[in-house]
Specification:
about 550 residues; alpha/beta; EreA/ChaN-like  fold; 3 domains; seven-stranded mixed beta sheet; three-stranded antiparallel beta sheet; 23 helices
Length: about 550
């Protein structure tokens, strides 16, 4: 090689070459993985891309001294003396480059910082990257590549930032509402400190003030534009109640929209088509369930809700507005999130998949604001009275920032309920269904005080009840962080059907997991069931047996 006719390749052209190769390999691997998933075969995309990149660049550099990306950028890799790299040198260089990619490419910055434009992979393998003279396409491709990448990142970042502003607006409403709430005059009472006499008084109060759960819910919904029902996921009694309530809510409370956390907002066209059908499309309902954000929301009771709503519309005259069902969940990759947090090391590379869509990532990070926006659209922009069926943690009332025992301000992360209450304080109602996850010892007290005459359950308002000033003692997230927080700060109405240990898990939808679902997220299902799975049949069998471990 004539050194007078060569120049060391700079940082930007080298980065362009690497990213070009990586992008092309990612496209091919993703296509092959998509095809394989249709037959239930799993290919770990991110790890496969890295391995294929190392193999491809090893062969290409040892053979021709350049990859396709290097050819596009007009650069060639050679030994320091100008000769071609051996297969071992090329392999070491490619492996080092692949490892640097796993570190978000940060080690490549050495190339930009050093006058010689040589990175660690160059020094350790006694190699250099040179720019070929007279290659006009190099500058054009490098410029085009980075302009395209910058445009894509900018558009995605703008969309993500726009939604962050939406979250800020919702959160500001929740904060303002929390700060405006009147301070309590009574000292909070630890649920564990209650005496037998005090518990007897609570039971006596419930016996005279508790109401029928269905009638109470219908009355609340009839007086509010939005009613939030906070459930524990997958409990048969709760979904049986919802399926019973839907026709009554439509007829007696004039509810026109059922908003479901288990459905995605971008499925609303499919949901509308399902609700309008002359016959109930069972396959479409099952497909909507399979596309839920967790890819594992297989409890049959939720998808019975769709049929119940459809039946309401079948009995409705043409003159009356039909019942709508809408999803409020964002379209995000929750299996990948779970694998990044709890999965094996190879699956933590899915972080790159999550970060590749900044707008979707912002929806994930601020999902309660996304929920609130969807509910607002249905209830106020479209003007339909709405009942929202969602996990109980999402419906908590606004809690102001307070000081903990160390005197430091505790910042509370506001949920969908707090956001909606903050913006529409007189038009939003909340009912929490009995659960111990966030209420702990308070739920135990209510179970003990449950009046025997209400065999089908009961409901009651919290604010003026003797339960209002109870606190959990610190076993849950909210009570543990805020010493003077009490029951009425989080919950306005409570609905009890049976003690928590009597709540039954819903039946599972048959053949829920398809080969394609299994082929996309096999490690997620293995993590979900705590064991190795050979096929989608194993996942369906474990699901039917209730072996879910998350």
């Amino acid at each position: 090689m004539n050194e007078r006719n060569t120049l060391a390749a700079g940082f930007w052209t080298r980065a362009t070459a690497v990213l070009t190769d990586l992008l092309l390999i990612a496209v091919v691997v993703s296509f092959v993985a998509s095809l394989a998933s249709k037959w239930g075969q799993y290919i770990p995309i991110e790890m496969t891309v890295i391995v294929c990149y190392a193999v491809y660049t090893t062969i290409a550099i040892a053979w021709k001294g350049q990859t396709l990306g290097g050819w596009m950028c007009g650069q060639v890799v050679s030994r320091n003396d100008g000769g071609r790299l051996s297969i071992m040198q090329a392999a070491c260089r490619s492996i080092l480059t692949a490892l640097f990619l796993l570190l978000l490419g940060l080690p490549f910055l050495v190339v930009a910082a050093k006058p010689t434009k040589r990175g660690w992979q160059d020094v350790l393998t006694s190699s250099s990257v040179h720019r070929l003279p007279g290659c006009k396409r190099a500058t054009a491709w490098t410029t085009l590549f980075w302009l395209g990448l910058l445009a894509w990142i900018s558009l995605d970042a703008i969309a993500g930032s726009r939604f962050y502003l939406t979250y800020r607006a919702w959160n500001a409403d929740a904060v303002a509402s929390a700060e405006s709430r009147v301070a309590h005059e009574h000292t909070p009472i630890e649920a564990t400190s209650l005496t037998g006499e005090q518990k007897a008084e609570l039971a006596k109060w419930l016996a005279s003030h508790a109401q029928d759960p269905a009638a109470y819910t219908i009355d609340i919904a009839a007086r509010h534009q939005i009613t939030l029902l906070g459930e524990t996921h997958g409990k048969k009694q709760y979904l049986t109640l919802l399926n019973y309530l839907i026709p009554e809510l439509y007829q007696r409370a004039q509810v026109r929209t059922i908003a479901l956390e288990c459905c995605r907002a971008d499925q609303n066209d499919d949901l509308a088509r399902l609700m309008r059908g002359e016959t109930f499309d069972q396959e479409l309902a099952k497909q909507i369930g399979r596309e839920a954000v967790w890819n594992s929301w297989a409890w049959q009771g939720y998808w019975d809700v769709l049929k119940t709503a459809w039946q309401v519309n079948q009995r409705t005259t043409v003159a009356k507005e039909k019942l709508h069902v809408v999803g409020i969940a964002p379209s995000v990759d929750l299996p990948s999130l779970a694998l990044v947090k709890y999965g094996p090391c190879t699956e933590k590379l899915r972080l790159f998949r999550l970060l590749s869509r900044l707008e979707a990532f912002s929806h994930l990070a601020f999902h309660d604001a996304f929920y609130a926006s969807c509910v607002e659209r249905a209830a106020f922009e479209e003007g339909r009275r709405t009942v929202v069926w969602v996990g109980a943690a999402h419906v908590h009332l606004p809690c102001s920032n307070q000081r903990n025992q160390d005197g430091r301000v505790v910042s509370v992360s506001h949920r969908m309920g707090a956001m909606l209450f903050g913006r529409y304080p007189d038009q939003v109602a909340q009912i929490v269904l009995h659960q111990k996850f966030s209420l702990g010892e308070i739920a135990d007290v209510i179970e003990e005080a449950a009046p025997s005459q209400f065999s089908t359950g009961f409901a009651f308002p919290i604010a003026d009840s003797p339960f209002a000033h109870l606190r959990d003692g610190g076993s849950s997230v909210y009570f543990g962080r805020i010493p003077n927080l009490r029951f009425s700060d989080l919950v306005s109405s409570y609905l009890f059907l049976v003690p928590e240990h009597e709540l039954e898990t819903c039946d599972w939808m048959e053949d829920f997991v398809t080969p394609h679902m299994f082929g996309r997220n096999k490690p997620f299902y293995e993590m979900l069931f705590g064991q190795k799975l050979q096929s989608y049949h194993d996942a369906n069998q474990d699901m039917s047996a209730g072996l879910m471990s998350m």
